[in-house]
Structures are given as structure tokens and as C-alpha cells.
Amino acid sequence: MAQKEVETKFYGYIGDDYPGSVIIKDFVKNNVTWNQNCHESTGISLVLVDQSGERSVTSYQGMNDEFELSAAELEDLDNDMAVCGLGLLPHLETDLKPLIARAHSNGHTIYAGTTGDTNHLYQFIKEGKYSGLDFLFMNNLEAQRLCQLPNLIDCGKELVNECGIKNVIITEGEGGATMISQNDIYHACRCK
Fold first, then answer.
1. Of 35, 87, 113, 130, whose CB is crowded by the most CB atoms within 10 A?
2. CA distance 120 to 118
3. Residue 138 lies in a domain
4. pLDDT one digit per residue (tens) for the chain, 192 residues
5. Which residues, in sequence order, are bridge partners of residue 90?
């Protein structure tokens, strides 16, 4: 987003280690501001993409288990926002409602993407802790694991109708992506 000249701020912990130095160098290069450094390890994820475009993710938590947003930081969140790696930030994810409410009170949108760790993530979703989320992105394997349903449309409908998520976008590698909302289903093919 920053490379497209969108004002971008990162909320999270960046460790005093090699991965942290790489991230900070990239932030400086792209004019991204960040809120804090720490003396612990930076959380990192390894994303593997196969030839068909399917991805799998493995993560090292680092300081992500400790990350929380303060009330002062919530006041600063007055633009569209993206929460990356749902399933990796347990203190934040136990209740995303303040973030969702803050975005909506200012007429903004909140986007979120999942990680491969769907066990406690699905519990949070089922408990309605992501209700009102504007867009939830996941891949087809995550959706099927999350919902325990083989059909992606049924997975998306469950997340929309039973969990209160407004739009679910399920990527399908070479098959493109499908967006499911309350009244519509759209499919975009991957152009070659």
C-alpha cells in the first residue's frame, strides 16, 4: 500500500533482531511509520506458494503473543485498516469489536486475512468476535478446515450468515477467487 503512496502505519512489535532490521529498512524505504520496537524476537511467517498458486503458512510467534492496542492507539485508527494474520495476535483477536467499531464510526472499512492456524480462530469467529468485519480473506484450504465443509460457497455462506462477516473472499490458487456476501456471490478467474 505504501508503494502506491497510501499513508501506511504499522501497529505491532518489531524485535531487535535480524528480521526486525529487515522490516525497519523496508519501512524506511517505503515511508511506513510504526509504533514500537521491543527487545524480544520479531514474529515471522513463512509463506510457501505451490505452482498452482495455493499457499501454506507456518509462523513463529515472537512477541505477537504479547501485542495489544492501547486506547490511545485506537484513537489514532481513523482510516481504512487491514489486520493481517488473524490467528497470530491472541490479545487483539479476543475482541476485534473496538477496531471494527472505530473503523465504522468514521465511515471506513476493515479488512482481515487469516493464517493457517484456524483452530482458535474459528472459535473466535463462531463466538461472534469478528461480527461486522467488512472483508475476511482466506484460501480454500483454510476455509474448508475452518468450516468443515467441502463446498467453498457453503463455507462462505456460513461465515456470512452465522458469524456476521459482511464479505468473505476465498482464494483458489489457479482457480481465481470467490467473494460471498449476504446477497451476492462473485467469482474472478485468474487471467493467464
1. 130
2. 6
3. yes
4. 788 887 788 877 888 899 899 989 999 999 988 877 777 888 887 878 887 777 777 777 787 777 776 655 666 666 666 666 666 666 666 667 777 887 788 788 888 887 655 666 777 787 888 888 899 988 888 888 888 888 999 999 999 999 999 999 998 878 889 999 999 999 998 666
5. none
**What range does the domain containing 109 cover?**
78-188
Cα 30 from Cα 26, distance rounded (Å):
6
Number of domains in the chain: 1
131: cell is: 461480527
Q: Does residue 80 contact residue 103 with C-beta atoms inside 8 Å?
A: yes
Q: Is the pTM of this model over 0.85?
A: no
Dist. CA 29–CA 31, nearest whole Å? 6
Position 24 in a domain = no
3-class DSSP state of 133: coil
